[in-house]
Amino acid sequence: MSDRGWWAWGVGRTDEMGNGLSDQRSLFPGLSPFQPLHIVILGLDCAGKTTVLYRLRFNEFVNTVPTKGFNTEKIKVTLAESRRRATFHFWDVGGQEKLRPLWRSYTRCADGLVFVVDSVDGERMEEARAELHKITRLSENHGVPVLVVANKQDLRGSLSLAEIEETLALGELGAATPWHLQPACAIIGEGLDEGLERLHAMITKRRKALRQQRQQRRKR
After folding, report:
1. Which of 33, 128, 160, 197 suits 168 as a labelling partner, its CA being 20 to 30 A distant?
2. 205 annotated to bind ligand
3. For 187-207, how does the pLDDT look when each residue is reduced to its tens digit (9 = 90+)?
4. Does residue 96 have an active-site annotation?
């Protein structure tokens, strides 16, 4: 993890970390009011979603347990390229099969999706592809940017990015869905802030395009 200037605060967590939501805005009265970006972290169970979340939150490895509901954190970051600060409100949702029907409830009004895959678990990559395409094809998620985190790239036997891209059929997500495939190791944080930069850039580009569309409609 690079020293790009991370500010983070807990908002409420589940299971061992705790579930819930509490208002922490008073802790940072000097920050300008900015609507946090609603980011949902999805993926199959054991892919490393919660490890990603708490690596971003604490900038260190946190031993986690399978998420039975959801974990949520707000993280204030300074983006390296622009040196501008942005707030990400992450929702990490359990990836067990019985919980996946609930993903839709969390992705409504999402600004971006983070889909974490286990680069070593080639046997379940097809299953991951099915879930990824299912959630991105929902009408309410049309055009929402997707950051695919290829976790555990440091382990022997991990699939290459080319193999993951092909197996997940990322090229078939559709022209309206921007995506970026990011190699990462959540335990040490490698690749996570770079991926976050790309996700923010995709969200910014989409928002600009939507504004332009609204302005054109008003002129008609």
Report:
1. 197
2. no
3. 999 999 999 999 999 999 999
4. yes
Q: By the 8 A CB rule, do 89 and 11 touch?
A: yes
State the Cα–Cα distance between residues 193 and 4, nearest whole angstrom: 8
Q: Is 92 flagged in the annotation as binding?
A: no
CATH class of 6-219: alpha beta
For 131, the enclosing helix (H) or strand (E) is: helix 125-136
First-to-last C-alpha distance (Å) of the chain: 48
Model confidence pLDDT, tens digit, residues 89-106: 999 999 999 999 999 999
> Hey, what are 182's tokens?
């990011």
Dist. CA 203–CA 76, nearest whole Å: 16
Other C-beta atoms closer than 10 Å to the C-beta of 43 total: 26
Nearest to 159 by CA among 198, 107, 120: 120
95 marked among binding-site residues:
yes
Rg (CA), the chain: 17
Instruction: Give the separation between CA 122 and CA 92, rounded to whole angstroms.
Output: 22
pLDDT digits (tens, 9 = 90+) for 120-131: 999 999 999 999
What whole-number distance in Å separates Cα of residue 208 and Cα of residue 40? 21
Out of 24, 35, 96, 216, the active site residue is 96
Render pLDDT for 27-54 as a digit per residue (tens, 0 to 9).
Answer: 233 333 458 999 999 999 999 999 999 9
